[in-house]
Amino acid sequence: QALVQSSGENDMDWTFCGLWLHDLGSPQLDVNISPGCSNVSVSANRTTLSIHGQVTAQCRRFNGIQLDHYGLGHEKASNFCLYWEPALDRLILQVKQQNFSLCRSAHPEGSCCTDLSRSSIGPEVVHGIKKAMIRTDVISLETFSGYTFKGERVPCSEEHFCSFTVKTMSNERLCEYEEPTITVHLPPALKLAMRTTTKVAVTFHTNTTFFQVTFSTKILGEVVDITVENEIIADLSEPIRISFYHDAIQVWRSHRAWSRDCFTVDPVHVKWLAEGCVTSQRGVEHTECFCNHLTYFSVLVELQPRPVRHLMALTVITSLGCAASFISCVALIVFLCTKSRQSKEQSVPIHLGLALSLAVLHLLFFLTGVLANLGGEALCAWVGAGMHYSLLSSFTWMGIEIFHTFWLVYVVFTPSPKPYIWNLLGFGLPLIPVIILVAVGDVYGLREVFSADDLSNPYQMCWMKDSTKALLAHYVTNITSVFLLVSSGIVMLILVYRKIRIRDEWKQTQVAFLSIWGLSCLFGTFWGLTFFEFMSDLVLFFSCFLTSFQGFFIALRFYMLEWMRKRAASTLCSNSTGSTRQHMLQEKS
Ligand SMILES: *[C@@H]1O[C@H](CO)[C@@H](O)[C@H](O)[C@H]1NC(C)=O
Ligand SMILES: *[C@@H]1O[C@H](CO)[C@@H](O)[C@H](O)[C@H]1NC(C)=O
Ligand SMILES: *[C@@H]1O[C@H](CO)[C@@H](O)[C@H](O)[C@H]1NC(C)=O
Ligand SMILES: *[C@@H]1O[C@H](CO)[C@@H](O)[C@H](O)[C@H]1NC(C)=O
Question: Start and end of every G-protein coupled receptors family 2 profile domain (predicted)?
């Protein structure tokens, strides 16, 4: 049995040692340290050992120290070591077993100056630094006047420090007991399986950038590679046990679920595979893998599509709602077309535009499932693009409805823009993002929606694909539109309310007014809700219902307003101001 333990090696701390060849007499120390991160130099001549530089976070020190009190004056050479602990901002010089704390502990904030690398060496001299060493590596056996090292800033915090530093120099305990990152337990069965050698090589890879990971997977923590030279070990009777202590999973794409599993590398195809290991999740930061062969191992997080609860019921509601909405919108279009021939009312083309875009949206939404199963990839992409276009067009028309009402109330004396301008805006503007996305490519296409009840049989639809690019497009176009629609709706609602509240026709018009604004805002909100996937079942059903019956409600609202207008007209026609009120009402609807 063997137990291999590895903990992150502390690379931040730095030690420089050497033998200072000096004169008899009165050697001294020359210190000039200031905050910064450029370079630090250690140089020596026959009288002085100098430490100059800018590597500290806060420490500033500038003085000379006489060393003859410390017994250096009687000898011609002294061993010295300089210890630099950037995470503690501590610099200690040890000369002849005597410690000089040049910089006492402090807490650096945010970054540390570390990775000190040699940038220059002084000339070879008689009195200087001999046998210079960095940590335990000898740089040179000759004597040089000095060495300069260049530092580099790296992020560091107490957490960083705690997870990477093994304390060696002081008794201070900043961190609690540190867990090893990976422990490997090799079973006796392995020894029996090895034929030629008895050596097992275990390599820990902290830098995992080399190991290619796909879009939907991510390596959690480190990679460990266990091999036996020239042998392939597989099908062990007793598994190798590897414990990974890693960070808790960052929810970096929260709209999808994730799974945490042990993976191994298939060395032939250089691919991560989930086979050959059994995963045991011991805690959010601890995963244990039981594997029956030797290769590279790691814990990978795999993103998986988030299953939708009650998908069947939601699909039925959506289909019914879309059918009802489509029929209502078509009826509304027919009604508006006959009406527009009779009257020159400004708002008719706007209602018509909204009804038309909603009709197309609901029709495509109704058919998207069927088309996804029947048509090929290309057709699906076009259906997805069409659906996106009609959705954006509906948003634009809702915005126009809101803006039009605002215009009628605020800009009373200027006639509102001509219908062709509205058409250009409502049908033309949404074309721009859709054309751009089609040109970019790989945005529209087949999208699978997984049911929580049956993961193996996803519901297919044509919409935006499930990729980073498409997700970005969704945020930039849809979420932004909903946000603009709802926020501008609320602002204009308040402005219009303030203006018309004091007019005497307010009482008659308020119902109509509120119904328009309220509904416009509500629709925007429900589309918005549909996009946010953290919803309780009730909200999910509610928003699904309202979204799919949207066209139906818009038509219903329209007929109610027509009815109210007729009633108002008949009760007010005897009044002297009746015609003005009627005008206001007409424009408001
Ligand atoms: C040390 O750093 C300073 C400031 O960055 C630079 O001017 C100087 O040349 C450096 N010295 C050496 C020896 O690299
Ligand atoms: C030794 O170096 C110090 C500072 O680096 C300097 O002040 C002193 O003059 C030097 N001494 C000799 C003998 O070169
Ligand atoms: C001097 O400091 C070093 C490093 O912190 C430590 O290992 C050593 O024990 C100290 N020596 C004395 C005499 O305090
Ligand atoms: C990890 O290795 C890659 C090259 O394989 C390198 O580009 C990257 O800088 C390394 N990262 C760290 C943190 O060392």
Answer: 314-562
